[in-house]
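User: I'm designing a mutation panel for CSON014850 protein and want to avoid disrupting the core. Could you give me a predicted structure to guide residue selection? Please restate the sequence first so the numbering is unambiguous.

Assistant: Good idea. Sequence first, for numbering, then the predicted structure tokens:
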Amino acid sequence: MYTIGTFDYDCTKKCKKTEHGNAITSALTKRAVSNEKLARYITKMCRNFAEVLDDEGRSALHMAVSVGNRYDIVEYLIRQGAVINLRDRESGQTAITRAILYGNLAEAIFLSKNGANLLPDNDFINPLQYCYRVKKPIDNENRCETFVWGRNKNYNIGIGNSQEKTTPDYLDEFRKNKIYIQKVSMNSYHSLFLTDDSELYVTGHGKGGRLGSGDEMTIISPKKVRIPFRDDDEKIISISAGKNHSLVLTNKNRVYVTGSNTFGQLGLKSNPDMLMSFTEVPVNISDAKRVIANDFTSMIVTDNEIYMFGTNLGQFGLKREVDKVITPRKLINFNVDLEIVESTNAALICYSSTSTLLQYFYKYETKTYKKPLMERITQISATGGIIQENHKNCPRSDRPLRFIVLTEFHNVFIWYENTEKFVKCTFTSSRFLEIDRLIWCNEDILLSFMGNLYRGTATHELKHRAIHIPGEYQETYVKKELSTDQKTKIELKRIPLIDKIIDFCTDPEGENFIGLVENPKKYFSLPEFIEKTYDYTNLFSSVNVYDTIHDVCFELGGRHFPAHRIIIQHRSEYLKKIINDQFPNEKLVKLQELSDLGLPCDIFELILRYIYTNQPIMKNEIERLTENYHQTLTMLKKILTVMGLTELINSLKKNSQKIKSPFTPLNREDFPDLYDVTLKLDCTQEIRAHKCILMSRLEYFNMMFDHSWAEQDTVNLQSIAIEYMQPIIDFLYKNDINDVREAKYSDNYLYNMITICDQFFVEDLKNIFELIASEKISVKNCGEILEFADAYNCEILRNCCMQYISLNFSRILELRSLEQTDPKVLQQLNKFYRQFYSLVSYWTITPYANAVSDDDLESFISDFMVDLNANRNPDEENLTFKQKQKNKTGKLSKTTLDKRNYEKTGIIAMLEESNQDHIKAQKCLEMKKQELQEEINQVTVKFESEAKIWTKVSEKSGAKKKQNNVLAALKVNDVMQNESKSGNSFINLTPPKKLDSPSSSRGTTMERTPEPSTSKNLTSLLTKDSEEESPRNKLTFSLADITPIKMKPGKNRKRLSSGSTQSVSIPENGSSSHHPIVSPSNPWKIVPLTDVIKSPIDLEQESIMNASTSMKKSQNRKSSEINSVQGPSQPKSFDSIMQNEREKKQYFEKIKTKSLVLTQLEEKAIEELKEFYNVDNIFDETITIERRRMTCEEQNQVNVAKWYQDKKLI
């Protein structure tokens, strides 16, 4: 089988044949072919299969993301080097644009994760604007969410501090409290917010009373202010923020004002210096639509009139002699409906849709202009205006007047004061854009287009060569009003994280911004919860005289009717009174009164059915059970009246099959004397309950109490805390859905409750919590909630989450909230998204006619194999996208090169220093080894000289101890020899050496491998009494025979340590045999001999040492071994030390809260493991047995079962 590396291609890695591209893109349209076969086909077709293009400039990646269900191929192509941001020649669309257009969200998320940019196409439409949207609103349209960003020098964006916010983000004060804004107004020092409930919030500097809060204090986050309305139904309809004052207009045509009155802009006859709170302006107007607050003036706009008050700077159309207008004054009667009114500090512009003229007041003059191209104007925004007089602290302004207009055909024109003509605006990115709204942003332009917000930089009054079209008809007004030799170019830059923008504003300096975006839940709808009936049907159908759950049995007419005392006492006062008064402590209850009234047994069974199941008695049932229907019915009504079941009598009259349950909800605390089961919970908490209620409401307890647990009165649920189990038990009793939904829960509590309800199969309560969790879905947590819903089979939560993602995918994609979601879950999202917007019917790519046939494809790939998980370059697998791009370009800035040179110099210096330290450490280690070797040789020589003059053994116990040591050594040798014969083949790490002298045998680790005769001879030597033998006979064998051997841990150690000791005798002949010592074959690592072989003096000293000293030596020995292999140890970082301390603290806190039973079980298990591995008697290695410390993620998890779709994981 060929692979990409072994196949002989007829092209190179730089192949650009369109024939190959056409074959690859057409083959990818075949939906019936698997991804693995298509990957083999496109890989074999061309060596440059990842980048080759077809006739339309599309690559394999363009087609793979468009077809759908090609996630594996998309991932394979990107790993093989496909260009992610490549535009096709057909429409300039990138791969991520096509993925969104065809509804393949999983592929779009994967592309974004791997560095795909949101590049616009030839029509200047970016990928986010191709996300589909619902057209019919479901929720309130005015419920907008507020985004703010800017320099925030004067606290006028209300984020609670004065820090700069470079990117748009939610205003937390409104988001947390679910406050929705419908209108905003901003100026240099403060901002006003109008909610959909007609409440006013303010933020910013309060100097001069501009905030209307009653003082001059600065408010750093939005605060609600009170307005003294005269009527209860009075509501705010318009707001405006000036530089030093604020205006408010209500639906009762009343105007309220607050702030500084330096220029007479408050409109009050008393002309106060300032107002600290809102005060009504006395004015008699009707049909008021809007108020406008500038730096020096205020205006009230009605349908056809304008009222103004403040300082006259030429913008009122009045004479120069008029200095100030203290009270509201009507400017002029236009006699037409005013559609648009805009103003600056120096000018006023008015436009009426019924007129063809545009009128403005500027420099004490009034002028009119015709509309550009005779198109209806939809919006006007003005800026600038020359102020010549220095009138009472009015600042002088030299900025010329400009106003920009937007027409109904989305044409943009700018009127310039110096030419007094309109200049048409063009955009560098596209010839035509359907602009929705625009305003001036200092010298720039802020505009919205298809829901996105852009900031445009204008290049004004460029020379433009007019194109004259010959013809008889000439529009003379065009030459006068519209400039033909000039144009203005606007370069747009998108503001990120803003989508579905509705309204926006900025301060005069263009430094702070507020945007109102569409509510993400505007079209979001939750499913209706269908409440199930609250009854005990399953309990009634399963009760019998032989079960162990029923605790009362009624006797009537010789028949027995088993029942449950708590249900009877809760739903029938008559039967409750009989039980408590006549049979308080008896299980059998005789219904003598009902028997005397002539109640048939079958009818009483129907009454019990009604008590348990709420099912009424039907007419046909009475006719079937009795012969005389009317007589039985009369008798039954009398009995039901005695029993107090009036609702059942009414159902008999109506003969209705359905009846509303007349019984009140059951409280667990109502019948404490009937408790028969105790739930043992975490932290020794308990809940007392009734078995029959738990069995009837929950299958979990029904299975438990119906079988082996029937006689038990306790249930061990110690893995669950009481705060989670209490709501479940209360719901089983009350079935109160509203009580559950109205409570406030944290996110973690909701998810834990869903998990526990899934464990106990409480479907109703689980569905309620899923609905509550669905209300908390946001653009930032939707990915986590979706994975949680998929893991715990939460159908309601999963569908709601997918619906929310489908409605707000543009925001979610830009926030990267789904990049960590499982690809399998995202592929399910693809299917839901296409069905939600019905994309299957018209956005589906059918197989191309020139695509390869199935037979030809099978024969073509029969000898070729690919790995869909293969990387183009394994070295770049862990690199980020930006690092890969730098590696592709190969061009780095001078600063980056200098930085890398400094890094290289530092790394080289560190390496040299570490090498020197390593060399020094090696030299010290060699010197220590030589000193240790000399010491060992001296001790060995001394031992051999002393052994020759030994004459007796001091005590018999000492001989027995040495005898046991010999037996242990022999046993180890036999076991190791048998293991070597069983087929274990270990590679020798060091070549075997034959040692001639004891001194030379201490250079490396030894392993005794005695011959079979050795053990036999030594065993026979030790059988006789040691007292009758000479001292020399006792030492006729080599000391190597009792050398400790490095043993394997585990079962072998257990087997060696647990074996029985046998008596061994020493022969009288005193023959001494020395066996050659062979270098061992150690399967783990090379260990110095000094760590294994000990002289008799060392052995005697070690027998005297205490346990703590031996443990310390073992640890030092272990660290020396590591240093001998790895070199000098590196010091721990401060972060690692702090992390270790935090883990220890969390571990001890976890131990404190653990129950005593579990702690005792763990202690017992630790002792058994220590005994099994013989920890206390082993000194050649360190074995530590302790509790496993849980990680932070494991500690945060709930200790309950986790249910998945196919299996249960505990």
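For picking mutation sites, this is relevant: DSSP finds 38 helices and 36 strands in the chain. Residues 183-333 form a domain with the Methylamine Dehydrogenase; Chain H fold (CATH 2.130.10.30).
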